[in-house]
């Protein structure tokens, strides 16, 4: 088994940031083709934000190590681009410095896999101890192919990673989820968890396990079931707009999905 070494560190991130900033590191034509063909979120951004998306994507891809598992000898360009683009979609409202740097290894399985850790089959997983995010490709593609069913393994796992990264202090990438909005969100989520248990909620049943699962499932709904989510629970939707610092609803109106980066940031 190949050893999993830490690829991302402060210096390597800084180096890649400089290469991107000065235009020495860009998406290849093949990578751009995959992004343009299969990732609608990118198309709905303004040209200015599309450029930012590409820069953040190439930085993310270069800062992570991708490993094939379960029969995959390598991870294809298509897999790297679409998995990374899903991460950037979740992160896009935050400053460029938020890159989930603790999670520097991404493992890709062909299909659902058996986890020796949980002794269960999984579509994906986040392992903070080893800085690993795991994705089952077949399930990931199912989620990508249906962008309006509120079910997306990639968004789900990156939402888990985001919540964990927010608490990890050693790399300076923490505390970016505004506490005031998180407290309000947890308060609302606690009530909603009861509704899920009664079978009376738009959130799918996986959300009822705990607040962490609820958060990941609600972020899936935020991006994929946007209009219904906002109509069903506008207060919770608003919390996620402020927590993730972007509003997918604006994609439907043709307005930019987040504030201009030059505008003053609210909170930390
Ligand atoms: Zn989960």
Automatic annotation (TrEMBL):
GO cellular component, one term: cytosol
InterPro entries referenced in this protein's UniProt entry, alphabetically: MetalloPept_cat_dom_sf, MtfA_fam, MtfA_N
MF terms in GO: aminopeptidase activity; metallopeptidase activity
Origin superkingdom: Bacteria
Coiled coil spans: none
SUPFAM superfamilies xref list: Metalloproteases ('zincins'), catalytic domain
Protein name: DgsA anti-repressor MtfA
